[in-house]
Amino acid sequence: MLIAVEGLDGAGKNTLVAGVMDELTRRGAAVSTFTFPRYGASVVADIASEALHGEHGDLSESVHAMALLFALDRADAATQIRSALAENDVVILDRYVASNAAYSAGRLRQDASGDVVTWVTDLEFGRFDVPVPDQHLLLGVPATVAMQRARSREATDPTRVRDAYERDDDLQMRVDAVYRQLASVGWASPWIELGADSPDSTEPTRLVERLIRK
């Protein structure tokens, strides 16, 4: 099973991925994880990060140029993902193609039915042929809560300076709305919106049981 975990910065994706991985491992499953963008391991991902922190001239102003950089990062990792799927029971992705769709749409003030979501879908799943997730998990933390967490994290950790996307509160609100639209229409694969149906839905044991039932 290939699972993509999505949500705003500060939503708690890293914590969820670690918890689910530990629970699956406890049950005897072989699990592998990838985090996107692959900062420090991918040149194009690093260029994207540098652009979002003010480098490379006006590169970050282009929605499609930034989306292409993030897409190329995943295209470069596609073979590794397929190998991990062949060797493990579950592969968990911390951010994936839906992030590109949601952020691109949010920047262009489009919704999930807009042209840029179609473009990202065709580019990544079509032309670049990256693996399609079997399941999406959306951390439905309110956008205001996620943004406050991101600000607090920056204040206590000098290595976690927020980028241009993270500092734009209006953008974060729009991206949150697109994420929820993608979940509601089951974009690319089934979605589970965590925290939306019950307060304990992000608890790893209950979540893994829910995934097994599916």
What does this 3D model show about the protein?
The protein has 214 residues and is an alpha/beta fold. It has one domain: P-loop containing nucleotide triphosphate hydrolases (Rossmann fold), CATH 3.40.50. The protein is built from 9 helices and 5 strands, in the order βαβααβααβαααβα. The protein has helices at 13-26, 43-52, 63-87, 97-107, 115-127, 143-156, 164-167, 169-185, 204-213, and strands spanning 2-6, 31-35, 90-94, 135-139, 191-194. Strands 2-3-1-4-5 form a 5-stranded parallel sheet, with helices on both faces. The longest helix is centred in the middle third of the chain and has 25 residues, at 63-87. The protein is globular, with a radius of gyration of 16 Å. Its EC number is 2.7.4.9. One of its GO terms (molecular function) is ATP binding. Phosphorylation of dTMP to form dTDP in both de novo and salvage pathways of dTTP synthesis. Keywords: ATP-binding, Kinase, Nucleotide biosynthesis, Nucleotide-binding, Transferase. One of its GO terms (biological process) is dTTP biosynthetic process.
Search tags:
Thymidylate_kin_CS; alpha/beta; 214 residues; 9 helices; globular; Rossmann fold; 5-stranded parallel sheet
What can be said about the biggest beta sheet?
5 strands, parallel
Structural class: alpha/beta
Name the overall outline: globular
Computed Rg: 16 Å
Q: Compute the number of strand runs.
A: 5
Q: Which second-level CATH architecture applies? A: 3-Layer(aba) Sandwich
Regions with pLDDT < 50 over 5+ consecutive residues?
none
Q: Into which percent range does the helicity of residues fall? A: 55-70%
The CATH class assignment is Alpha Beta
Number of helices: 9
CATH H-level superfamily title: P-loop containing nucleotide triphosphate hydrolases
**Distance linking N and C termini:** 11 Å
CATH fold name:
Rossmann fold
Biggest sheet: strands side by side, in what order? 2-3-1-4-5
The helix/strand series, from N terminus to C terminus, equals: EHEHHEHHEHHHEH
Domain count: 1
Query: What amount of the residues lies in strands?
Result: 5-15%
The whole-number mean of residue pLDDT values reads: 92
GO cellular component, one term: cytosol
Organism: Gordonia aichiensis NBRC 108223
Enzyme class: transferase
EC number: 2.7.4.9
